[in-house]
Amino acid sequence: MTEHASGDLHVDVQVALSDIDEDAEPPSAAQLTQWAQCAYSAVRDTPAEVTIRLCETEESHTLNHSYRGFDKPTNVLSFPFEGLDDLPPELAAELATPILGDIVICHPVLITEAKNQQKSLSDHYAHMVTHGILHLCGYDHQDDPSAEEMEALETRILAQSHIANPY
C-alpha cells in the first residue's frame, strides 16, 4: 500500500497483482495520483480521499458479479463512499478528510484492451483513473446526454496530460 497526497485529493494506491510482466508494468503510484488529482480538480475543489486498487482478473470478476451482476471481469469499477452515517461514531470522528470512494482497476483487462485499441497501457490507465474519479464525483453515462458530457469532460482532462481522445 502506497499513500500519496496531491493538492486536495489524498490517494491511497493498493497493488494486488501477483505476477507483473516487465513489458506491461502498471503506472507508478505517483503517476496514478497525478491523473486522479487532475480529474478531481477539474470537477471539485474540496479535500477528499480516494483509494485506487490494481487487481487481477479474478478479483475484478468477483466484484463485477457481486455489485453489478455481470459475470465477467471489467476494466474499472467505482465504489462511492455512502457517507459518515454508515460508520461507527468513533471512526467518523477520526476522519480528517472526507472519503470520496474506491476505484478498482483490473490490470490484465487493461493490458488486453490497450492492445486491442492500439493505445499505450499508460494512456489507457490515465483514462480509467479519470473515468473512475468522475464516477465517484457523480458523473455517469446512463443516457446519451450524460455519456456525451462525461466523455467530453474526460477528453478535456486527459488532454491536460497530453493524452489523445480515448473515444
Protein described:
The protein is an alpha/beta fold and 167 residues long. The protein has a single domain (2-159), classed as Collagenase (Catalytic Domain) (3-Layer(aba) Sandwich), CATH 3.40.390.30. It has 6 helices and 5 strands, in the order ββαβαβαβααα. Strands 1-2-3-5-4 form a 5-stranded mixed beta sheet, with helices on both faces. The longest helix has 16 residues, at 121-136.
* Overall number of domains: 1
**Helix segment tally:** 6
SSE pattern, N- to C-terminal:
EEHEHEHEHHH
Q: Could you give the order of strands across the largest sheet?
A: 1-2-3-5-4
Q: How far from one another are the termini? A: 32 Å
Kindly estimate the percentage of residues that lie in beta strands according to DSSP: 15-25%
Tell me the name of the CATH class. Answer: Alpha Beta
Helix content: 40-55%
Brief rundown of the structure:
By secondary structure, the chain is of the alpha/beta class. Helix content is about 45%, strand content about 20%.
Features:
167 residues, alpha/beta, Collagenase (Catalytic Domain), five-stranded mixed β-sheet, disordered N terminus
How is the topology of this model organized?
Blueprint: E1 2-6, E2 9-15, H1 29-43, E3 48-55, H2 57-68, E4 76-80, H3 89-94, E5 99-106, H4 107-116, H5 121-136, H6 144-159
Parallel strand pairs: 2-3, 3-5
Antiparallel strand pairs: 1-2, 4-5
